[in-house]
Amino acid sequence: MNINYLMPLLVVILCNVCYHLISKNISSTTNTYMGLIITYGVACLISVLAFFITSKNDFIEEVTKVSISNILLGLVVVGIEGGYILMYRSGWEISKGSLISNMCIAVILLIIGVLVFKEGITIKKLMGVVLYLMGFLLIK
Fold first, then answer.
1. pLDDT tens per residue, range 36-53
2. Using CA atoms, how far apart are residues 74 and 81, in angstroms rounded to an integer?
3. Number of Cβ within a 10 Å radius of residue 88
């Protein structure tokens, strides 16, 4: 397999593991949304630096290419981040919270993929959903 194909997956996996470990250990005395302000401030600074390191285009030119999807993504990311932090603070175990939420997301995206994006449904995918449901019952 091509490293350019695998590298993004490895980055996502590594960063997600770190993300959950860090989210689980955020102090409960920190206001969730003040924490997110700092988190996104740091992310903004890193993104600005990465833009200037990697882009050959003018900043303003690139801003004009931004779409409503980028704004909507910002909205839902706050929900994801805040939701995980609140989930862990409410007592979810790190081993269950992430697993159950990701399993549910996978099934929902499978259904959306089939209905909206006309992706194929296979016996393997259906078997995966059945295994998910069995795993969900075992984890609870």
1. 999 999 999 999 999 999
2. 11
3. 19
Q: How big is the chain by its Cα radius of gyration, in Å?
A: 19
Model pTM score: 0.83
The answer to whether 106 and 77 have CB atoms below 8 angstroms apart is no
How far, in Å, CA of 9 to CA of 109, rounded? 18
Q: What is the enclosing helix (H) or strand (E) of 115? A: helix 94-115
Give the separation between CA 111 and CA 128, rounded to whole angstroms: 13
Tens digits of residue pLDDT in 94-131: 989 988 999 889 889 999 999 999 999 999 999 988 99
Going by the DSSP 8-state scheme, the letter that residue 25 receives in this structure is T
